[in-house]
Amino acid sequence: MSFASFLLRRSGGLLLVLLVTSFLVFGLLYLAPGSPLAFILGPRGGTPEQIAAVTEQYHLNDPFIVRYIAWLGDLVQGDLGRSLVYRQPVGDLLISRAGTTAALVSLAAVIIAVVGIIAGTWAALRGGWVDQVVSTLAAIGLSTPVFVVGVALISLFAVGLGWFPTFGVGTGGLDTLWHLFLPAVALSVASAAYLARITKTAVNEERTREHVQTATVRGLAPGLIVRRHVLRNALIPITTVLGLTVATLIAGAVVVENVFALDGLGSLLVKAILQRDFAVVQAVVLVLVVAFVVVNAIVDVLYTFIDPRISLGSRQ
Amino acid sequence: MSLKTTTLAVAKDEAIRGRETVVRRTLDRLGVIGVIAAVVLAAIVIAAAFATWLAPADPNAPDLFAALSGPTSAHLLGADALGRDILSRLMHGAQVTLAGPGLVILLSTIVGTALALVAAWCGGRVDAVIVWVLDILFAVPGIVFALIAVAIWGPSLFTVVCGLAVAYIPYVARVVRGAALRERNLPYVSAAWLQGHSGFGITTTQILRNVQPIVIAQAVSSLGFAVIDLAAVSFLGLGVQPPTADLGLMVKSGFDSTLRGHPGEAIAAGTLIVLIVWCVTVLGDRLTSTARSMS
Amino acid sequence: MTTPLLRVDDVHATVHLRRSSQTLLNGVSFEIGEGEALGLVGESGSGKSLTTRAITRMLDPNFTVSGSIEFDGASVLGMSPSALRRYRQTDVGMIFQDPRAHVNPVHTVGDFLTEVLVRDRGMDQREADRRAVVLLDEVGVRNPESRLRQYPHELSGGLLQRVMIASVLLAEPRLILADEPTTALDVTAQSDVMAIIEEQRKARGLSLLFITHDLELAAACCDRIAVMYAGEIVEQGAHVYESPRHPYTIELLGARPSIEERVDRLPVLTYNREIHEQLKASA
C-alpha cells in the first residue's frame, strides 16, 4: 500500500490503542480504594480551594462517562491537567523532562546496536573461543538487572575511579553526554547481550543459505560475501529485535533515571506514583504507549527498505 | 552360583543400568552447564526455603558495633549499615526474590495459557479479539504495569506481583497460542472431534498435554525476567517494604553504603540476583530447545 | 593428444559426522574435453551434485576429498585460496537448480548480474550494465533494461533461471556446471531454458557438465553420457543409450515409460546395493 494509506492506517491504530489505554488509565483512578477525592488529595486532606479545584479538574460531580469525555477533550486540546505536587501544567513538566529521557534512550540504543551487532557477528564468523567468550558474557549480561549494573558502574567508575560523574545531567552538550554515558551503558547491557545472541544466530543461519553459495562459487571476495550477502540479509531479524528493544528501553529508563538521579520522564513517573500525583502518572503512561507504537511503526517502515519482498503495510 | 543369586545379580545389574540411562538422558538434555545451573539453583532454593533454620543469625537483628564491617567470623559476608548479618539477610531475601516471581509466573501462565487455548480453539472473532487485547497489553512494559498497580493500591509485594502477572500474560499467551494452533491443525484433533469429544475436553486433555513442554519452557525463561522486574521495583522502594529482607531492597541500601565506601552489601545482593537469573535463564534455554526439538 | 579441460581421477569424498563417517563418492573418474558436453545421470543420492561441488571445491568442511581434479592441467584440490577464487570467477560457472533460493532476494537483478564485474574486477558500472543487457537479450529476456532494476521476487522462475544463466555467461567461463537447471521449472520453461543453454554453449565453444535425472534431456544435448550409482560411475561413453552394457544402465533405460505402449505396471528397478557390491567383487 502507499505510504499515505500506511500512515493513515497506522495513525488510526495508534488512536485506537490510545483510546483504550486512556480509558483504562482514566478508569484506574476509580479503582483506587476510597473516594477519588480522598485518593487524589491523599492523607494531606485539602483546603476548600484545593477541594474545589480538584473537583473541577476531575469533574467529580459528573457521571463517569461525562468525566471521561471531558478529560479526553482536555487531552485533545493539549491540556494534560495540572500536577498537584509541582503546581505546573503537566504538559510543561513533560516537555522539560522528555529531552533527558530521549537523549538517554538514544545513546543507549546506539551503544546496543553497535556492541550487540559487532559482538554477535564476530562470534558467528570466528567461532571457537570468540564464540564461547561472547556467549558467556552475553548470558551473564542478560541475567544482570539494570539497577545492578548501574550500582556497579557507579561504585567502580564514579566513586572508585572518579572517571565519570555520579549523578545529574550536567550542563548540556558534551557535559551532558559525559553525564549520560554511565546511565546509557547501564541501560544497554542486557539489551546488547540479547542483540548479540540474536545476531549470532541470524548470521549463522544466513551463512548456510543457498544464495551465499552462489556468491562463493562465483569467486567473490570473502569480505564482500560477508557484507553484502550474509550481514545484509541478517538485518531482517536484527532490525526486529532492535525495534523491540528500543521500545522496552523506555521502561528501563525508569529505573536508570532513579539510580543516577536524572530528571527524565522515568524519575518523574516514580515520584508521581509515590506522591499520588495522578494526572502526571496518566500523562507519562500515555507518552510511553505513544512511543512504543511509533517505534513499531518506524520498524515496519524500515523493513520495507531492508527486504524488498515486504511491501508497506504487510507485516510478516 | 545358584539360580537365585544369578537372578539377583542380573536384576541388580539392570537396576544400575536403568539408573545410568536416566542420568545420561538428563545430562544429554541439559548439557554440562545446564546441570551446573540446576544444582546451583537447587542449592539456593534450599538455602532460602530453610533460611529460618540454616541462617547463622537473625536477619533483622541490628548490631551497631558491627555496622558496615567486612567479612568476619561472626558475619561471613559482613554486615550492613545497621549491623545486620548480610549472609542471613541474603538467605531470607532470596525467599521473597524467588517466591514473588514464582507467583507472577504461576498466575500469568495459568491465565495466559487459558486465553491462548480459547483463542486457538475458537478461532475467528474470538481469536481476533483476544489477539487484539494481547497486543494492547504488549504495548505496556512489565515494570510500568507494576508501577501503575502500585500507583493505585500503594506499594506492596502483592500489588507488584499482580501488576507483573498481568503484564506477562501476553508473552505466555503468544507462545502458547502459536503452539496450540499448530496442534489444533493436526489430524488427531479432528479425529477426536468426530468421535464426539467436546471442544473443552479435547483442549484440556489432548492439546494441553502436547503443548505442555513449551508452556513449561516459556514459564522458566520468563521467571528470569520476573525476578529482575520484581527486584527493580523493590529497588525503587515501591515493592517489598522494609524491614522485610529482599535482594532488590538490599541492593538499594547497599548502594547507599557503597557511596560511603562500603560496597559489600550491594555486591553480595547483586551477585546473588545475577546468579539466580543466570541459572533460571540457562535452564529455560535448555528446556526451550528440548521442547522445540520435540514438536 | 590434447589435455582435457577437466580431468576427474579416482575421486573419493567422505563426510565425517559426529559419530560416523560415510564415503559418498567412491572413485569417480571422467574427463571433459574442450567444447564437449558430458551428461551425468543417475537417481537421487547417487552423488551427482556432490561431484559438481567437488569440482568447485564447495563441499562442506566436514568432507575429506582424495584423488585428483585437474582443470587445464592445474590441480584444483591443491589450489591456493587466491588461485581458487580466480578459478571460480573466470574458469568455471555454475547454474543451480532452484533459482529462487540461489539469488539473493534483497538485491536487484542488475546488482546480481554485475556484482562480480564491478566489485571484484573493477569494471565501470555503466559498462557492466551494458554487457548485462546484451546478455539478457541473448538469453531471450524481454525489456532487459527494466529488468536490471527489478527484484528477484518480481520475476517468474523461468525468467530468473535465464537471469542466472546470463550471469554465468557474463563471467565468460570455459566450463559450465549445470546442476538440474530445469527441474524446478514447468515444462515450457524447461525446453526454453535448455535451448538457450545449448545455443550459447555451441556459439561460444564452452564445455558443459550437465546433471540431470532426465535421460532424454541428457541424450538430447550431450555428446557423452556417464551413469552414476552409489557414488561411482558405472558406465560412460557416447553410445550408452544405444548399447548399454552395465546391468544398472540397462534397467534404467528399460524403466522409462513409453508414450506409445500401455502397461499394467511401471517397471521397477531390481538393481540394488547388494548386487552392486557383488558385481564389483567379481570384477
Structural features, described:
Chain A is mainly α. Helices cover 78% and strands 0% of the residues of chain A. Chain A has helices at 3-31, 36-41, 48-57, 64-76, 90-126, 128-143, 146-160, 174-207, 210-217, 222-259, 265-274, 278-306. In chain A, helix 7 crosses helix 10 (222-259) and helix 8 (174-207) packs across helix 10. Chain B has 295 residues and is mostly helical. Helix content of chain B is 79%, strand content 0%. The relative contact order of chain B is 0.13. Chain C is an alpha/beta fold. Helices cover 40% and strands 23% of the residues of chain C. In chain C, strands 6-7-8-3-9-10 form a 6-stranded mixed β-sheet, with helices on both faces. A 4-stranded antiparallel β-sheet of chain C has the order 2-1-4-5, covered by helices on one side. In chain C, helix 7 (157-170) packs parallel to helix 8. In chain C, 38% of the residues are buried. Chains A and B meet through helix 1, helix 6, helix 7, helix 10 and helix 11 of A and helix 5, helix 8, helix 9 and helix 10 of B.
Kindly summarize this structure in a few lines.
The complex is a heterotrimer of chains A (316), B (295) and C (283). Chain A is built from twelve helices and no strands.
